[in-house]
Every structure is written in structure tokens, then in C-alpha cells.
Amino acid sequence: MTTKQSRIGSGFGMRSTATDVLDGVDLTGRVALVTGGYSGIGLETTRALAAAGARVVVPARRPARAEQALSGIPGSETAALDLADLDSVRGFADSFPYDRVDLVITSAGIMACPHTEVGPGWEAQFAVNHLGHFALVNHLWPRLDDGARVVAVSSGAHHASGIRWQDPWFAEGYDRWLAYGQSKTANVLFAAHLDRLGREHGVRSFSLHPGAILTPLQRHLTTQERVDQGWINEQGDVIDPTFKSPEQGAATQVWAATSPRLAGLGGLYCENCDIAELPESADPTQGEGGVAAHARDPEQAERLWAWSAELTGVNAFARA
User: Fold this and answer.
1) Rounded distance between C-alpha atoms, residue 33 and residue 77, angstroms
2) Which tens digit of pLDDT belongs to each residue from 93-134?
């Protein structure tokens, strides 16, 4: 069963929190993996899933820092993982402490950072936000049970850029916002193609825009840049009415990972705890932008999957 890219009337909205969408949901016995699950909306995601009974594994580049952040959350645990290092990704997957994983939420990411290269000269935002997660999910594929969901946390910033096939590494000049937009488009395309490949195995995938939230994700922006964007005033107070709290920002990814309303569905982009509209029907007063055409092109999704498999050397669906 599939559905078109339009709202289904979830009963939740822009101001719903992760706790709201999990009201009455029992995740006892379920194993969740939340990258970035010790900071910002990822931390609120971990908190809500654990409170609903899930065992939540939170990989971290700095495990000691993650352990401190998670110390008050029973049911959570951490392990070392650097998404910019494919050997680290493989090692984490090989030593994953459970024989299955029911929910994967790829919440870790970097945004608008200075030009940085990782691995064999890969632009860091694309490498961390997309390739690291691509490799992680493919390595963990044997542990994804029938009924599992993979949720790729994208952004409305995906509208800024499709995949720059002619210059994906910005050799001709770096633009940190276009680089971020490209990586977020990659998240949407990845989820769409993973759903196409995984649905016959009972594994479904979604992508989403969590909304605008002030979190450590903006650490590469100065206060003045945030003021100039209209997000905050000179005193640091949020003035954009579409901004959410971290608890509200975590809601859509938690909803996409657990909602029974999404049973039988997949490959869709979500906003405000519902399936997103196309741009022409989105409501910007609610922080909506819909999903761009370049991010819902199945040929682009298939091409990106093949290229990502070539770059990372892992493809769980490769024919023997």
C-alpha cells in the first residue's frame, strides 16, 4: 500500500511534542537506534522513546559526553561511532549489542560548517549527513526485522539544492548552505529508495523536516547571522513564530518511527507530524515547505543509491 504525498490527518501538528505523539504507545521490547541522540532534538527523541519502553542505542563521536547527557534516561546506552569514518561505522555495526533493531532514526548532522574534507576528500556535510548514515543502515540491514522503520531526518533546506552531479564536492567554489541543502536532499532520496528496496522485506522508510529549532546544530553560525536571518533578536530571544522547542522538533521523527497510522506506507516526506504536502499546497505560516520535485524523483534516488554504494563500498541489496 502506498499513498500520495499529502496529509492523512494525524491528529497532531506543529506544536505537538514527542511525548504527545507517543501517548498510549508501548515500545517495550523494541530496540531503537538514534544517531545524534544525545543533543538537541535527538536527545528529546531518545528521552521520549525510552519513556515509552524502548531500549535506545545512541552512537556518539564523543561517548563520554553522550553518557553524561543520557545519565538521567533509563533504557538508553551509548557506543562510539564517527559518521565521517567508514571504518568506525563498520566497527559500530559489527559490534551492535542487539540481534535486531526495530527503529532507526538518523538524527545526527552538521550544518553550514566551513569547508571541510573528510575521508578521501569528501565534503563533510554530504559525508556525515548522508554517506555515514547510508553505510550505517546498509551494515545494519541484517538486523532490521520485518516491521522495522528507518527515519531519515532531512530539512526544509533540501529545497536549496538537488544533487550536484557536476560538482558534488564543491571543487569549483564552496557554498556552505548549498552543501547543506544537497546533503538534506540526499536524506530524502535515500529514504525513498530504501523504502523501494526494503518494503518487500517488511522494512519501511520515511524522511522529514523537523521544523526550525534552536539547537547546537547552529553552532557554526554567529549570533549576528541568526539575527540577520530573523530567527532571534539582539537579546537572543526567538522571534520567528514558526520556531519550535526541541521537544516539538523531535515530534515528527518520533511520529514517523512509531505511528500506527503509517502502517503499510513508506517512502514519504513528513512535516508537523503528518505526511507533507507538495510545495504548492504547503502552509508557510506553519513552517511548512513541502517536498521539492528534485527530492522525489525516483531516478535521482536510484542514481544516488548506486553512487553512494560505490563511494562507501557497502550495499546490502547488491546481487550476488
Assistant:
1) 10
2) 999 999 999 999 999 999 888 999 999 999 999 999 999 999
Q: Contact, 289 vs 112, CB < 8 A?
A: no
Q: Which residues are catalytic?
A: 180
Residue 171: count other Cβ atoms within 10 Å of its Cβ.
10
**Is the residue at 72 inside a domain?**
yes
- We report the CATH number of the domain holding residue 307 as 3.40.50.720
End-to-end CA distance of the chain: give it in Å, rounded.
29
In a domain, 1, yes or no: no
Nearest alpha carbon to residue 5 among 304, 295, 199 = 295
pTM over 0.90: yes
**How many folded domains does the chain comprise?**
1
Q: Is 13 part of any domain?
A: no
Asked if 233 contacts 227 with a C-beta cutoff of 8 angstroms, the reply is yes
Q: Domain range spanning residue 213?
A: 18-312
Does residue 140 sit in helix, strand or coil? helix
